[in-house]
Design goal:
The protein is mostly helical. It contains four helices and no strands.
């Protein structure tokens, strides 16, 4: 069980570092979601289910939805799709 916790902590550090270096906003949100899910698993392993449920609901759920809606409102996701279409045509 100790090895599993160490692996989760390593993934947590990797997510924290990679979200700050990611240039694509959509990828940053997905990495942030995985960070929150890993954190909720760690809370379960630390025998704190109330914090795990809160982290999963707020961190991975509501916050991510708000980020997706914000990206849609500022048309950042549309620009990503247009860039991918241009690359496919070339």
């Amino acid at each position: 069980m100790k090895i599993f916790q160490i692996v989760l902590f390593v993934f947590l550090i990797v997510c924290a570092i990679s979200v700050s270096f990611s240039k694509n906003l959509l990828n940053s949100i997905i990495i942030f979601m995985s960070y929150s899910l890993i954190m909720s698993i760690i809370w379960i392993l630390l025998e704190s289910p109330d914090l795990a449920i809160t982290e999963a609901a707020v961190g991975a759920g509501i916050t991510s939805i708000l980020f997706f809606v914000t990206l849609k409102k500022i048309h950042a996701m549309v620009e990503i799709e247009k860039d991918e279409d241009k690359e496919e045509k070339e």
